[in-house]
TrEMBL record:
GO BP field: G protein-coupled receptor signaling pathway; negative regulation of vascular associated smooth muscle cell proliferation; negative regulation of vascular wound healing
Membrane-spanning residues: 6-23
Coiled-coil spans in chain: none
Organism: Crocodylus porosus (Saltwater crocodile)
The protein's name in its UniProt record: TAFA chemokine like family member 5
Keyword flag Transmembrane helix: yes
Record gene name: TAFA5
Keyword Transmembrane on entry: yes
Gene Ontology CC terms: cytoplasm; extracellular space
Family: Belongs to the TAFA family.
Signal peptide as annotated in the record: none
One Pfam family from the record: TAFA
Amino acid sequence: MQLLKALWALAGAAICCFLIFVIHSQFLKEGQLAAGTCEIVTLDRDSSQPRRTIARQTARCACKKGQIAGTTRARPACVDARIIKTKQWCEMLPCLEGEGCDLLINKSGWTCTQPGGRIKTTTKTDHH
């Protein structure tokens, strides 16, 4: 009988330790991104001007070596760092499928032109 009680106590302690380990592992992973992924942290929209919406977005990325935070298909993404350094924005495919991409004259951003003629302009700002 004593042996049975000892086994139950041991099993209970093992289960308790396992649960603590699982909870602790999940707690450490929370807030971490997988390598090569991004998430939107903030998104603010200002529609106070007629026929114009200004959107400001902040993203957090965990990019692999040689990559940097950028935009692909209108979503935050890790892209080749060379694209950002040379400001060849359209090479990261920032527009949605079916839209045309053009660099702004001063290379401060790009435009995405939809088939119907609507134009979305994106300018890059640095936040260190």
